[in-house]
Amino acid sequence: MRLPILLLTLAVMVPATIYWKHPVRDANQEVKYQLKLITDALNNKDIELFEKLVNVFDRYAEPILGVYASEAGYIVYASKTADGGLYAMGRLVSLPDRFTFKWELNAESPSGYKLVECRELF
Known about the structure:
4 strands; four-stranded antiparallel β-sheet; alpha+beta; Nuclear Transport Factor 2, Chain: A; about 120 residues; signal
């Protein structure tokens, strides 16, 4: 009799857990989502959202993000760092240029991450 009650209790509790509502994404999906949020903020000229998503805006960031906004680039490698951040390497479709992106966890960002580095590799 105890086993059916235990199973019934678990069946009721499972849909209430946060893990079912927010599934864990792999690093590649998370990077694509972050880039989409940033490019949407750029395209919609939403300065407040952009400032929450991007920490530094160096001379490389604008053209690189513009490439990903036009979908002329793709992500080659993405991984989660030990401190919970994200690291990604991307390429252009037609050129051998490579770019790196680094995100850190940030409580103020709506996505939970903030872009802190965007570099072109030579």
